Amino acid sequence: MGSFGNGPAGDRTGPFGGVAAVDKGVDFANYFCTYAFLYHQKEMLSDRVRMDAYYNAIFENKHHFLGKTVLDVGTGSGILAIWSAQAGARKVYAVEATKMSEHARALVKANNLQDVIEVIEGSMEDVSLPEKVDVIISEWMGYFLLRESMFDSVICARDCWLKPTGVMYPSHARMWMAPVRSGLADQKSNDYEGAMDDWHCFLEDTRNCYGVDMSILTKPFAEEQKKWYLQTSLWNNLHPNQVIGTPATVKEIDCLTATVNDIAELRSNFSSVIKCNTRLCGFSGWFDVHFRGRMEDPAQKEIELTTAPSVDNGTHWGQQVFLLNPAIPVYEGDDVDVSFAMTRSKDNHRLMEVELDGRVKQPSGNLFQPFRKTFFVE
């Protein structure tokens, strides 16, 4: 999730970051196939926060598009390419890795923009354009910003095809984290305990009915269920009141200069002050992106797209919630100090692993209830 189309995949070795090669067939099966369906495009196109941000960014900053060449990375239905053309672009190259390109091409023609927009089916890493472009536009953001690794393809496009004076839409991004309270922590713990109770009943039935002792599998089953219920981050649209501490920025990205290595492994230390007496049930992560242009060619009106819990009705991205088990009692004025690390999964480069290592500190300086946990963003 998290794109107007999908970020083209390819071999991520070489000048774009030096990370491991990706099997294109496996990558397509795991990721791209989802974006080839109109129902998924409709879900994203129905996100008004998302749509309004991109629409306003383009039409409030027409000077970046008027008479310019534009590259839309992962065009999906083609909506960003169409808006770019409507804002006055001379030429728009709309790159799409799936058969959604056929729908995009039909939509472009239905809006009489086929003389301006050229839809190209293929991976961004494999596409060759006849010219450099003035603008690269893309909605590359996944859950907690970097899940899906689509920004890799945007970086590739930028390094290959953006003019030295070109602009990126969006131009900047930030990742945030904050402590939260949530009944999900208790629910997931209960779900895990229920799964283990069911397993033990299964062992007894199998032994009594079929004469086979399967208890040797209890440990791997418990590890499997623990990962699913207690270590996998959750999608949620949180209410602002569930945020119990000051939010902190854990990563800032300049889309004009960031490299794949900059985002492949993130490490940050942050602190948060607890605002009330409650339980620390975990942490929430979200992001915002900004359309600022570049220093030499700024936006006439800067637009922000945020997925924070404060957004009315939320977005399709929601927030990623990382639950602690058990929850920790906290009090107004406590400091929560956290060491945050996020790396790409070894099994699937589009998924992430997050490690939180922290402690709660009382105003008196006393320490209590340290915590450390690894999570999977899947």
UniProtKB/TrEMBL annotation:
Keywords: Methyltransferase, S-adenosyl-L-methionine, Transferase
GO biological process assignments: methylation
Transferase found in the keyword field: yes
Reactions it catalyzes: L-arginyl-[protein] + 2 S-adenosyl-L-methionine = N(omega),N(omega)-dimethyl-L-arginyl-[protein] + 2 S-adenosyl-L-homocysteine + 2 H(+)
EC number: 2.1.1.319
GO molecular function, one term: protein-arginine omega-N asymmetric methyltransferase activity
Gene Ontology CC: nucleus
Domain Protein arginine N-methyltransferase: 191-360
EC category name: transferase
Superkingdom per UniProt: Eukaryota
InterPro entries the record matches: Arg_MeTrfase, PRMT_dom, SAM-dependent_MTases_sf
S-adenosyl-L-methionine recorded as keyword: yes
Transmembrane annotation, as ranges: none
PROSITE patterns: SAM_MT_PRMT
Subunit structure: Ring-like homodimer.
Name of protein: Protein arginine N-methyltransferase PRMT10
